[in-house]
Structures are given as structure tokens and as C-alpha cells.
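Q: How would the C-alpha cells look for this protein?
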Amino acid sequence: MAVHSESTKTCASCGREMQWRAKWAKNWDAVKYCSDACRTRGVTTQDRELERTILTLLANRAATSTICPSDAARAIGGEEWRDLMEPARRAARRLVVAGEVDITQRGQVVDPSTAKGPIRIRRHRA
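A: Here is the predicted structure in C-alpha cell form.
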């Protein structure tokens, strides 16, 4: 059995790391989403707006500052911002993959695929 040279990818919707699976052997190069839920959800205009908002909020702060995903959710959602928390976290994970931001907990960069609990977002530092 051949081992695929690229054993991990990132989901285009949620930004989490996907591991190679035998059921994807025939079409691994075409696999974009980690689950049926992510395939159905895709990336919406609201998701792109959250990404732009995160980058704008960070650009308007000091280079060492961080934001909470709720800052972006509040900027877009107003009174209904709580429904945008998970989409804001997904947007942040996609921005990590793009190399734009880092996700931190207690000041330390964490793996966005496995981070649980409160997170902060900061500009990527080389």
C-alpha cells in the first residue's frame, strides 16, 4: 500500500487539520473539506467578512496587541454577535493557514486545530 506524500491538509471551511484517510485514497488531491457539515457550509460571504474584520481590527491596534474572536463577531453581528462566535473562530483558523495571524492562549501560540477554550488572535510574527 502506497503512503501518500501529503498526509495532512487543512479544511477549506473550518481551518482544522485533516489527516489522510483510506476512503479518500482515490481522490485525496480533490478533498477540500473535513466533513459533510463543512462541505455543506463552505465559506460564505459572512465568513470572508469576518476574516476582513479580524485583519482590520488588528491593523488598527498596536503590533503587539491581540483581539478576541468576539471582537470581530460584535463588529459584524451587533446584538446577535454570539451566533457568530464559532464562525469567527473558523475565520481565525483560516487566517492562520494563510499565514496572516497566530492564535494564542496565555500568550503562547497554539495549534488552531486543537485549541480549546478562550483564544486570542494576533498578527503573525515571523
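The beta strands are 8-10, 17-19, 66-67, 101-105, 108-109, 120-123.

Residues 45-123 form a domain with the Arc Repressor Mutant, subunit A fold (CATH 1.10.10.10).

Upvote if useful.
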